[in-house]
Write a structure and sequence with these properties.
- The protein has about 130 residues and is mainly alpha-helical.
- The protein is built from 5 helices and no strands.
- The longest helix is centred in the middle third of the chain and has 32 residues, at about 65-100.
- The radius of gyration is 19 Å and the shape is elongated.
- It starts with 7 loop residues before the first helix and ends in a 5-residue tail after the last helix.
- The relative contact order is 0.11.
Amino acid sequence: MKNLLLFLPALLNRSLGHAWGPLLAAFFAFSFVASGPYVLNDLFDIEADRLHPTKRRRPFASVVLSILAGLVTALILVVTGFAFSLLVYAVVSVTYSGFLKNKPVLDVVVLAFMYTWRVYVGGWFPKHGFRPG
């Protein structure tokens, strides 16, 4: 539900029609990247969940899913999310070149996004490597 916030600016400025594709890709990118750490959180909480009256039925606590399955799932989710985020960047870049560069104000916002995304990613990897979170 939190990732629906991605659509808020486009809804408020009535530009959802132009931004639907990139926003949908961003929605999935954020969903996947955010889900990987949630899976890891469930792995970290296995022992406490096994002692809890209702949480003991969770897939990892009840051993329906193995720890290895959780680790692989978390990795796949994060990698898939990053792939989607690169797709979003590519779509935004192509959309900018073909259409948005001629739209006053919007062109500056899109360029700012593309530059800010580069700075963010450049700062994220030295600190985190390929680990989620």
